[in-house]
Amino acid sequence: MAHVSSRLKEIAMEDIPNITSDIIEELNKLNINSVYQLAVQSPFELALEFEDTSLNVESASTLIANARKILIENKVLTNEFSTADEVLEKRNKISRYATGSENFDSFLNGGFETQAITELAGEFGSGKSQICHTLCVAANQLIENSRHDDAKEIDRHSKRGNIIFIDTENTFRANRVHQIAEQRGLDPLPILEKIFHCKVYNSEHLESVINDLDKSVEQYNAKIVMIDSIISLHRAEFSGQGTLAERQQRLGKMLNKLRRYADIYNIAVVITNQVVSYAYGSHPGFDYMKAAGGNIMAHGSTYRIFLRKSGKNRVATMDDSSYQPYQRVKFSISENGIQDANSYKIEESDSHW
Fold it and tell me: For residue 135, how many C-alpha atoms fall within 13 Å in the half-sphere facing its CB?
């Protein structure tokens, strides 16, 4: 996947082969206003959205394919077939967003990766939300440091380095971001102004937000999308075996869309996941935990990281990755956010973390 500049390439809808003004008008009614937004659509869903029968599934598929072709020609996407050395060259150009914890970032080969979905799974208090809050601060700092444009030409809300935080469990705390920034010697206000928080109340709301996430990414020019958590609402609303199939289907559709967004917009997607516990053998009191969501969630993420408590520290395990080996890293949580376990002396007063 080719590297996309921080400002999306200006590509007109009229440049798409065989598109008509009537189709563009219909797409605009659906709030699909760019080639990027069209390229991430599902042919079946797009055909259903049209008010008349002027666009069937086959025609929608051709239209979306032509939109992707335009992005390929503009080097936003790679050719349908590329040699392995071309794939490697482009992979070496992806962006990574570090947390500031040297060991944890090394564990991620430099940080959270664009064009990928990184899943953080673990029980309550294992550090999922703390990693997200730390990344809000650290990523903003790195994005700021990587600017090449004249600062006068940059609008802080739309041009550079914004983050979308989709909150399904009421875990986002602006004062925590403020605290981490201050502890790291940074000005909290510009960082807070770059985080766009979206509070979600039910599963249908979450699906709607993700369905329109391409528009939000463009509107806020987001570089990172965080969802904390991806499964909590569906898990609460679809309880029992009778609703399991529908729940999994809905989760699969959301993850499929997130993968397409990550690819086309060159963004990092970070999702948190809950766990389920199983009795371990015949030993009462010993539970085995694994990430919730079954195979749909397992196959939907590029990287699956399992978090667990280890005394007053936390341990992150790389459970699944196409690129990295099975490995573990220990980290701590303090007023500074997450950091190396061996660089922070744990005191009794820090037990609230």
Answer: 33
| CB-based burial label for 154 (10 Å; 0-12, 13-18, 19+) | middle
Rounded Cα distance between 230 and 202, Å, is: 11
Q: Indicate the SS3 state at residue 304.
A: strand
Confidence of residue 145 (pLDDT cuts 50, 70, 90): low
Superfamily of domain 94-350: P-loop containing nucleotide triphosphate hydrolases (3.40.50.300)
Q: Are 163 and 194 in contact (CB under 8 A)?
A: yes
Using alpha carbons, select from 333, 352, 351 the residue that is nearest to residue 128.
Answer: 333
Q: Report, as an integer, the average pLDDT of 24-45.
A: 88
The more confidently predicted of residues 53 and 57 is: 57
* Cα three-residue angle 179-183-187, rounded to 5 degrees: 75
Task: Quote the CA–CA distance of 156 and 311 in Å, as a whole number.
Answer: 41
- Alpha-helical segments (H) within the chain: 21-29, 35-39, 43-49, 57-73, 84-91, 102-107, 128-145, 174-183, 188-192, 203-211, 213-220, 232-237, 244-265, 294-300
Kindly tell me if the per-residue pLDDT of 213 is higher than 80: yes
Question: Of 99, 179, 94, 186, whose CA–CA distance to 136 is shortest?
Answer: 99
**Distance (Å) of CA 18 to CA 21, 62, 77, 264:** 10, 10, 20, 22
Annotated domain spans of the chain: 1-93, 94-350
Q: Concatenate the DSSP letters of all residues of 23-82 into one string.
A: HHHHHHHTT--SHHHHHT--HHHHHHHSSSSSS-HHHHHHHHHHHHHHHHHTTSS--SS-
Average pLDDT, the chain: 83
Q: Which residue shows structure tokens 């921080």? A: 6
| C-alpha to C-alpha distance for 39 and 132, rounded to whole angstroms | 29
Residue 257: other Cβ atoms inside 10 A: 20
- The CATH-assigned architecture of domain 1-93 is Orthogonal Bundle (1.10)
Pairing of strands 313-321, 275-279: unpaired
